[in-house]
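Exercise 7. Given the encoded structure of a 387-residue chain, write a plausible sequence.
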């Protein structure tokens, strides 16, 4: 039996998208793996879907330690102070946590594999025989555009991590497509693997009448919701199309109060409710300003939707772009408005591609095949470690 720990930088039952990805992956865990989830706890709203999924898992335990680093994310700091906080203070806090919770974390010494959602949590790990596998989930945000010294420092931090200079305990990496090309570094003992999705949970529903656009993500500036609202106003599609908005965040009440023609504001919805909305919509618009992956894009593709998203995600979904199911768009509202008008006029063509879009998602990203590849890789690196 291989013993594996997955370290989450947030509470397992919170709304963070990494939780559902973890739980879905573990639903396809091979029988020769026993897994512990190590969560870093802080106050957060509980997502019932995650509680239910966890209760259905077998051979999976949950261990918790309280966060000491959460306050750093509330500071609106600029370089070089922000860099100092992230590169030195945050890792130092995880080192303190390692000593504070040394008895609770003692089990990590005898694990075979430790998988990190946030690479800086490697400082939480005591001396261990395990292969420590870093990941692209919480990687230094190389996909957030910056200027000047911030861009230089961010890319430097990314390269230093992949070269085992920062977070030096990490032995290898799970990287998303395009990251090696983006950073110009190919680390040893690594696998390039996209995120997985349970495609069986998504479907193509009846799609008739006027074009239906959808945004589903956190309601904050960084996810591009204000860009989409400006684009919607410019496009003037309120009479000829609808825009569904699903999500939660600091701009929620503001968006709800706008009462724009053609806009349907759902707020926070459950996973099942969201999947039902995906099934009825035609075009997913996600003008994100920064993501390590952008999982909602994958959910839309699994539902047969055409996708408009930002250039920041180039490299992650290039197969879908080549097939004509996804478009990388510029960063301005005008860019989105123009394309949304065109797609609304071509809605029958868009709908005719829904089935083939979903079929490509099943082939490239279905959880059954990707989970097998992932666990096979973990088994292999663990075996090599013991030789």
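Solution.
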């Amino acid at each position: 039996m291989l013993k594996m720990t997955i370290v989450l930088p947030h509470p397992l039952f919170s709304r963070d998208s990494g939780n559902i990805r973890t739980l879905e992956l573990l639903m396809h865990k091979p029988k020769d793996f026993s897994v512990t989830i190590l969560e870093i706890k802080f106050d957060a709203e509980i997502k019932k879907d995650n509680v239910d999924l966890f209760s259905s898992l077998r051979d999976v335990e949950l261990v918790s330690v309280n966060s000491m680093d959460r306050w750093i994310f509330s500071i609106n700091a600029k370089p070089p102070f922000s860099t100092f906080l992230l590169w030195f203070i945050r890792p130092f806090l995880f080192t303190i946590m390692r000593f504070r919770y040394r008895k609770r974390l003692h089990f990590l010494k005898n694990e075979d594999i430790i998988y990190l959602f946030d690479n800086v949590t490697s400082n939480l790990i005591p001396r261990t025989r395990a292969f420590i596998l870093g990941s692209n989930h919480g990687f230094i945000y190389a996909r957030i555009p910056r200027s000047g010294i911030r861009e230089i420092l961010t890319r430097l931090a990314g390269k230093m991590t992949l070269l085992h200079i920062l977070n030096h305990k990490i032995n290898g990496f799970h990287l998303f497509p395009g990251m090696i090309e983006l950073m110009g570094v190919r680390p040893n003992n690594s696998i390039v693997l996209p995120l997985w999705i349970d495609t069986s949970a998504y479907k193509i529903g009846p799609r008739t009448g006027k074009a239906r656009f959808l945004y589903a993500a956190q309601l904050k500036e960084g996810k591009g919701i204000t860009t989409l609202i400006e684009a919607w106003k410019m496009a003037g599609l309120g009479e000829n199309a609808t825009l569904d908005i699903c999500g939660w965040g600091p701009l929620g009440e503001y968006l709800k109060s706008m009462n724009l023609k053609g806009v349907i504001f759902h707020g926070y919805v459950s996973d099942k409710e969201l999947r039902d909305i995906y099934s009825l919509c035609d075009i997913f618009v996600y003008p994100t300003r920064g993501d390590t992956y952008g999982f909602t894009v994958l959910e839309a593709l699994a539902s047969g939707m055409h996708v408009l998203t930002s250039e920041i995600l180039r490299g992650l979904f290039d197969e879908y772009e080549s097939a004509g199911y996804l478009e990388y768009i510029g960063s301005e509202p005008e860019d989105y408005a123009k394309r949304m008008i065109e797609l609304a006029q071509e809605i029958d063509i868009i709908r005719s591609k829904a089935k083939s879009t979903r079929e490509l998602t099943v082939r490239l990203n279905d959880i059954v095949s990707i989970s097998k590849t992932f666990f096979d890789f973990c088994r292999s690196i663990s075996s090599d470690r013991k030789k």
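Remark. The chain is about 40% helix and 20% strand. Students should compare their own answers with the one above.
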